[in-house]
Amino acid sequence: MDILLIAGLWLDGSAWDHVVLGLEAAGHRPVPITLPGQGQGSASATLDDQVAAVLAAVDSASGKPMVVGHSAACTLAWLAADVRPGRIAKVALIGGFPAADGQPYADFFEPEDGLMPFPGWGPFEGPDSADLSEEARRDFASAAIPVPAGVTQGIVRLTDERRFDVPVLVVCPEFTSTQAQEWIAAGDVPELAKAKHLDLVDIDSGHWPMITQPAELARLLAVAALEA
């Protein structure tokens, strides 16, 4: 199966390099997506530009792909399901949840000169980054790509309720599947509360398992693809 991989903020497609190896070994065709404004194209890229890049990958896939979103990009994966509900076999969400219609995409930190830079490790101290070595932290920070405000401040628009028919897997790293279920049941994640086919799985990692647990993440995604 084609597995489309969308990394979260400040990352490009190379974030998936080690996961790609595991997925290929399992017989799948991984396709890391380098997003406009995050390693491709202009710093003036918008959320619509990123959505268009994901949709182009969906349309180019062989058969129905599984679309994988990490962190903020969980919303990009879900937007793809909204626009192409009949073309996607499954959505996998790693360490995040889709924003609801009308919400900003990822307006988490103050932009500087039209870009939202990586804010340093302070906001991510604790479970998010506890499993990252000092070397991994330095490498991440030095390679981090400031994300255009046109992306982070873009407003999410969801229009097709057939997205709720697309099977969803939530991979839970710095939080547990039990916590995620509680948040969904409490109404904190309205999009997933309406999903008709929802599974959750734990992975023993921080927020970036593609860095610290790539083999296990590849295994979980390969299993999910076989079940799609």
TrEMBL record:
Pfam families: Abhydrolase_6. SUPFAM superfamilies: alpha/beta-Hydrolases (SSF53474). GO terms for molecular function: catalytic activity. InterPro entries: AB_hydrolase_1 (IPR000073), AB_hydrolase_fold (IPR029058). Residues 3-219 form the AB hydrolase-1 domain. This is Pimeloyl-ACP methyl ester carboxylesterase.
